[in-house]
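Example 3.2
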Amino acid sequence: MSENEALETHLQELRRGTVVLACLRLLDEPGYGYSLLEQLSDRGFETDANTLYPLLRRLEKQGHLTSEWNTDEARPRKFYRTSAAGTRLAAALTDDFRAIAAAIATLPEKD
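Structure, written as C-alpha cells:
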C-alpha cells in the first residue's frame, strides 16, 4: 500500500463517525438524501450516495431517524428527520467529539 493510499484509508476511518454526527445534527430539519449530500459537502463532509443512503437506513432502523415519503411533487422523496433518540445520540457524540478534539490539542505536534 502506498503512503497516499494509507493516508486515504486513515482519513476515511477518521471521517466515518463524523458523518453520522453531521447527519443527525443536520436532520433536525427534515431533509432528503440528495439535499443532505449537498449540505454535507458544503460543510466539508465529503461523502457519496453509496455511503449516505445505507447510513440513513441504518440510523432509521436503529431508531435515530424517522422518515416519511413526500409525494406532493412529481418525484416522490423520502424525507428523514432526527428522532428524540437521535437527538440524544447527537448530543452525546458532540460532547465526546469535543473531548477528543481537546485531548488531541494537548498532544505534541511535529513540524
